[in-house]
Specification:
heterodimer; A: alpha+beta; two-stranded antiparallel sheet; 7 helices; B: mainly alpha; Formate dehydrogenase/DMSO reductase fold; 2 domains; two-stranded antiparallel ribbon; 9 helices; about 0% strand
Chain lengths: ~260, ~300
């Protein structure tokens, strides 16, 4: 297996240009939303709004302003599939459509997916959605085709500020730690890495440098694997079935006695 | 989302809507009907066999509706068989730890057993000239084995949706282990109600009808207790149930599915000869409302 590859997204240098979104769409031939009609969100300069089947990169605009608008800041984050080391989507897929590649990334095979949507409900980050053209679940592949040919993913290649950095995950982690230290030294004490350590789903191969709580960036503070719910749920379902069986048996046992 | 009570609030909806409600409803009814039919066959009186026959004959049409709903809910219905076959090798695909894959195999096995039992029921009713299928129903050894295995799989089909929904990261579904418990008890109540309804329609005066009425009432009471426990187990995530749509569904469920049928059981004189049928219709409507609430409840987190 090749070295695990991933993204380190430093949100403090993102300028919200959305070049990554455009590069991703262009390389992956993703269709325009609503037939190319220019639809404005109405309450933000961010008109993409979320990741879905035709937006595998999304630059989130977080607009934090005081009531009188005199004080404020923009938080900008280019969001993407996290390529979790322990991936919820991968463990729930009932058709084996979702695979882990030799680069330790998570890819949906469009020819296998039947659109059951289990992965959409399983992803703790809300990354996956149905592509209206293929009618299968789709998300960022970390440009698997480019990686196989020794190329860098389109989004990081296009990023003009190096907010999105691509490389071996271990190297990116040490680069991220240094950047956090640098920001702390410069007085930005709120800087931290989200998803860089193994506590979060075994580690996110796409991790982020943030300067506010994860929730502010629409990221879950404590994502969990869906599989942790199955044993208790199966146990209580079986208990329910047992109670149902006892109710049935009690009422028909009496009939047997009468017989 | 900044004040979200749980990390599940950040997930995207899989857009499982009415087809999944139908899948759960008819799957639950099929599982419950087979279980009760087998119980009547194994423990009931000979006079009750028509009730068991109705139970067996209900299963296959319910499973057909249920399977069609499941298939057409896929974004690619033409690829439904990918749930059972590894497409690159052509081998059977066993991913039994995923409830969707194990459920697909169980549905297939259950359909086969339901077909055998339906053939036996049809032969007993005189609809078939062929008499051999009579051996596929109790009291014979082969029929007994089929009925017991089918009853167990029926209970599985009626309850596994809880694990199916829990195997996600969605609000409500991933926050409680009790969804399957409520669903299987509701399935028992729905099946008893359905058999009672057919019994009243055919004007049968069978000894098993009384047992079915008691089963229906007891299942409703225990399901209500399980539903209360489910809501308590949600903790802060129960906030999603307070959305306007979820609140309306919850109140309607409590009134239609629990309070009204139990009241009719207590006051049999309210609707005269129609009391049993009315209570049964309400129990079935309650089962449908319960599944509607469960399937749509996560949307309350985003409202």
């Amino acid at each position: 297996m090749a070295e695990p590859m991933g993204f380190f997204t430093d949100t403090t240098v993102c300028i919200g240009c959305k070049a990554c979104e455009v590069a991703c769409k262009q390389w992956n031939q993703l269709p325009a939303a609503e037939g190319g009609q220019n639809t404005l969100s109405g309450d933000s300069y961010d008109n993409t709004r979320k990741l879905d089947g035709i937006h595998w990169r999304h630059v989130r605009f977080v607009e934090q302003f005081s009531e009188d608008r005199k004080d404020g800041r923009w938080l900008l984050m280019s969001d993407v599939c996290k390529h979790c080391v322990q991936a919820g989507c991968l463990e729930v897929c009932p058709t084996n459509a979702i695979i882990r590649t030799e680069f330790d990334t998570v890819v949906i095979q469009s020819d296998v997916c039947n659109g059951c949507k289990a992965c959409i409900a399983a992803c703790p980050f809300g990354v996956i959605d149905i592509n209206p053209v293929s009618k299968t679940a789709q998300k960022c592949t970390l440009c698997y085709d480019r990686l196989q040919n020794g190329m860098e993913p389109a989004c990081s290649k296009a990023c003009p500020t190096d907010s999105i950095q691509f490389g071996p995950v271990q190297e990116l982690r040490s680069r991220g730690a240094k950047r956090v230290q640098q920001l702390h030294e410069q007085g930005e004490k709120r800087a931290y890495l989200y998803g860089a350590d193994e506590k979060m789903l075994g580690g996110l191969n796409s991790f982020f440098l943030l300067v506010d709580r994860p929730e502010v960036y629409h990221l879950p503070p404590d994502p969990k694997l869906p599989s942790r719910n199955v044993p208790p749920s199966a146990l209580f379902s079986a208990l329910g079935a047992l109670v149902a069986a006892v109710i049935g048996l009690i009422n028909f046992r009496n009939r047997t006695r009468e017989r | 989302m900044i004040d979200a009570p749980s990390s599940t609030w950040f997930t995207a909806p899989p857009e499982w809507h009415w087809l999944i409600v139908l899948y759960f409803f008819f799957g639950g009814l099929a599982g419950g009907c087979y279980f009760l039919a087998a119980l009547i066959d194994l423990l009931g009186r000979d006079r009750d066999r028509p009730l068991a026959r109705v139970g067996y004959l209900t299963v296959l049409p319910c499973l057909a509706v249920s399977a069609l709903a499941l298939i057409f809910d896929l974004s690619r219905p033409d690829r439904f068989w990918h749930l059972l076959v590894e497409i690159h090798t052509g081998r059977p695909l066993f991913q039994l730890w995923t409830p969707m894959n194990s459920g697909a195999w169980m549905l297939l096995a259950f359909s086969f057993l339901a077909l055998l039992s339906s053939l036996a029921a049809a032969a007993e009713a005189g609809w078939l000239r062929w008499r051999a299928p009579l051996r596929l129903r109790p009291p014979g050894a082969l029929g007994t084995v089929i009925a017991i295995v089918g009853a167990l799989i029926g209970l599985y089909i009626a309850s596994y949706e809880g694990a199916l929904l829990a195997f996600t990261s969605r609000p409500i579904w991933a926050e409680t282990p009790l969804i399957g418990t409520v669903l299987v008890l509701s399935a028992l109540s729905m099946a008893a109600a359905f058999l009672l309804l057919v019994g009243r329609w055919r004007a049968w005066d069978l000894p098993g009808m009384g047992a079915l009425q008691r089963i229906d009432a007891q299942a409703i009471i225990v399901a209500l207790l399980a539903l209360v426990a489910l809501i308590v187990s949600l903790g802060g995530a129960a906030r999603a149930l307070l959305s306007p749509v979820n609140l309306v569904l919850l109140v309607a469920l409590l009134l239609v599915g629990f309070v009204a049928p139990l009241a009719l059981r207590l006051r049999r004189d309210w609707l005269g000869g129609h009391t049993v049928a009315a209570a049964a219709v309400l129990a079935l409507a309650g089962g449908f409302l319960l599944r509607t609430l469960i399937v749509f409840s996560p949307y309350g987190a985003s409202s």
